[in-house]
């Protein structure tokens, strides 16, 4: 036999044996719900760099429930790889649709819709902050329209969550809640850049808006944790909130909280208090 053909045959056999021996990669179970994609091209404002892709997930339980459903808006952090729908089915960090659905399925929160913008424009998500010029109300308007005939959002129960770079701008990202015409039910700032200016903004939101800021110190060096904490405390002291409204800054355990795991940890700890399956709200105890 031709030596070259023999070598090729040997390689083919080796690859076949390796493929048979390698364990099959387990696929995540299908999500019990409907995912809808929509987009905003920003042509109406003449700024195509502010365009985004939208994705909403409606669990089956939410679609069949009567009345409006709570909405979680999730903004991902930096996206230098320009992956579409990061944290909403794209990328490898996690999937907030699945995190929320597990909480719904286990009866820890009521049926909830999850929606998130996704940017693949480098200038908006790759230079220190993500969604620098985000318009929250425009995103909500487009989301409501995309869900027409599928599910209805209860605009009194909108939770805005931002991870990492989504909390590194004082104008965009989660800071966009300050410009919203709606009363946002709750804001979750998850392991952000810890800018003192953001702490002041969050702690001075309306007296009926819950604010939870979580962070970890294991992955970061030099972030202004103390300055953020001091600014947050000053803001809370200056602006009292209504009874039952929480303003919390919480450090997560560095032993179990690398950067990406702060998202499920925050959701699992705080969403049952903010969107409970029953009328009574019991907030987690914070030392």
Radius of gyration: 22 Å
Largest sheet: 8 strands, mixed
- According to DSSP, the number of beta strands is 8
> How many domain units?
1
End-to-end CA span: 76 Å
General shape: globular
Structure write-up:
The protein has 287 residues and is an alpha/beta fold. It has helices spanning 3-21, 60-64, 96-105, 122-125, 136-146, 196-203, 225-238, 262-274; strands at residues 33-40, 52-59, 69-75, 113-118, 153-163, 186-190, 210-215, 247-251. It has one domain (28-274): Rossmann fold (3-Layer(aba) Sandwich). The chain has eight helices and eight strands. The chain has an eight-stranded mixed sheet with strand order 1-2-4-3-5-6-7-8, sandwiched between helices. It is globular. The termini are far apart. The model is unreliable at 9-25 (pLDDT under 50).
List the helices and strands and how they pair.
Elements: H1 3-21, E1 33-40, E2 52-59, H2 60-64, E3 69-75, H3 96-105, E4 113-118, H4 122-125, H5 136-146, E5 153-163, E6 186-190, H6 196-203, E7 210-215, H7 225-238, E8 247-251, H8 262-274
Parallel strand pairs: 3-4, 3-5, 5-6, 6-7, 7-8
Antiparallel strand pairs: 1-2, 2-4
Helix pairs in contact: 3-8, 6-7
List the keywords.
287 residues; alpha/beta; Rossmann fold; eight-stranded mixed β-sheet; 8 helices; 20% strand; globular
């Amino acid at each position: 036999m031709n030596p070259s053909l023999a070598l090729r045959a040997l390689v083919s056999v080796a690859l076949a044996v390796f493929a048979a021996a390698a364990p099959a990669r387990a696929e995540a179970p299908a999500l019990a719900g409907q995912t809808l994609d929509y987009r905003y091209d920003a042509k109406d404002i003449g700024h195509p760099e502010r365009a985004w892709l939208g994705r909403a997930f409606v669990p089956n339980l939410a679609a069949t429930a009567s009345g409006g459903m709570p909405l979680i808006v999730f903004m991902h952090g930096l996206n230098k790889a320009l992956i579409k729908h990061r944290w909403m089915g794209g990328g490898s960090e996690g999937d907030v649709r699945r995190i929320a659905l597990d909480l719904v399925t286990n009866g820890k929160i009521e049926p909830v819709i999850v929606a998130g913008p996704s940017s693949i424009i480098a200038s908006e998500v790759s230079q220190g902050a993500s969604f620098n010029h985000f318009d929250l109300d425009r995103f909500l308007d487009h989301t409501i329209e995309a869900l027409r005939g599928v599910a209805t959002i209860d605009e009194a129960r909108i939770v805005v969550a931002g991870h990492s770079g989504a909390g590194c701008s004082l104008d965009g990202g989660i800071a966009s809640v300050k410009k919203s015409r709606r009363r946002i039910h709750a804001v979750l700032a998850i392991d952000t850049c810890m800018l003192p200016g953001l702490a002041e903004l969050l702690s001075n939101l309306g007296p009926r808006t819950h604010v939870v800021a979580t962070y970890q110190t294991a992955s970061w060096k030099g972030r202004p944790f103390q300055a953020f904490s001091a600014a947050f405390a000053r803001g809370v002291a200056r602006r009292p909130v209504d009874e039952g409204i929480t303003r919390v800054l919480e450090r997560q355990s560095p032993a179990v909280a690398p950067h990406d795991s702060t998202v499920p940890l925050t959701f699992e700890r705080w969403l049952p208090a903010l969107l409970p399956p029953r009328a009574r709200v019991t907030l987690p105890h914070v030392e």
